[in-house]
Amino acid sequence: MAKTVIILGAGVGGLSVAAKLRESLPEQDRIILIDERFEGVLGLSLLWVLRGWRTPDEVVYRPAPAVLPGVDLVKATVKLVDPERKRVVTSEEEFAGDALVIALGAELAPSATPGLEEALDGAWAGEFFTLHGAAALGERARKLGEGRLGVVVAGTPFKCPAAPFEGALLLADLLGETGARERVRVDAYTPDPLPMPVAGPAIGEALVGMLTAYGIGFHGGRVAEAFDGSTGEIVFADGGRERFDLVAVVPPHRPPAAVRAAGLGPSGWIAVDRRTLATSAPGVWAIGDVTLLTLPNGKPLPKAAVFAEGAADVVAHGVLRHLGLPAPEPWFDGLGSCYIEVGGRMSAKGEGRFLDEPAPTVTLHEPSLAFHDEKAAQEAVWLKRWNER
């Protein structure tokens, strides 16, 4: 009897799982991939759009039937997820399957911080987690001739734990290009005591040293409570206020509404088994930014595309075994890496084993042109793979 697998979300995780399942499932089995837009961009590309090294048109991928033969692509908004029945209600129709994979990612929630939504609507604040936002913020920074530029994390967790600090380094590099660097003070603020706390204090301190070396101030343990675009000030939980001429904000993130309502984990994020990516509902898996995967040290796995791609085999194997087909035992290894651009087309690289006990084992390599080129090669492979030929 033919089986049906439903995959929600055509980001890195969803696309990778769909491709791997199509290679292994019998032809008569149906794979349905549901996405609101079928258009995406890698996070690493957004930072290059911010810097002005890419245009928005150069970094968009638009998967079409030609690149996923044998997969039904349904453009629709997911309205309801019923994990117990593996049922999905969308803006177009209702679907039910034998297995369900949720890969709907994380969405920005600026309304969670007072004043932030209004600030982002004006000229004082911007974000670089969307294509339009990254391009617009880069243009604003290019016009900044003097004053203060703040890179502020407004809430955790967020996609790509290195992004705020990489963004600060690239914005400083951009100001160097425009000739304004000596007249603009750049500072980074985060609620965490150090950058990338999941990687451990040694990596965090190394990143602070990197920021300092490029003349960027680091301020850990600073929780932004409100944004006031009329005065150009941010109010922090410790009672302090800081005034900026331009703010690059990492907005709070949250799971999509349909996921929050599904009841598969705390705060709406989907709790998954750290080795299999299985949820508490039989026959249901989650992958990518929508998940809450707790590491042995109690911290969550970072929300990064490298982990979504790395877990695709694991989820595919779990689905195949659930459907009664032969497949290796699912086992996520937690290997991951990320690049941290410092400017001048130089990039550092952090890589490690995030499921090691008692805590992740991570190494931060010094910046080089080679790592920048390695990052560009990853981008090129992804864009070539998923854009219609």
Automatic annotation (TrEMBL):
It holds the Pfam family Pyr_redox_2. The keyword Oxidoreductase applies. Keywords: Oxidoreductase. The keyword Oxidoreductase applies. Residues 4-307 form the FAD/NAD(P)-binding domain. Its EC number is 1.-.-.-. GO terms for molecular function: oxidoreductase activity. This is FAD/NAD(P)-binding oxidoreductase. It comes from Nonomuraea bangladeshensis.
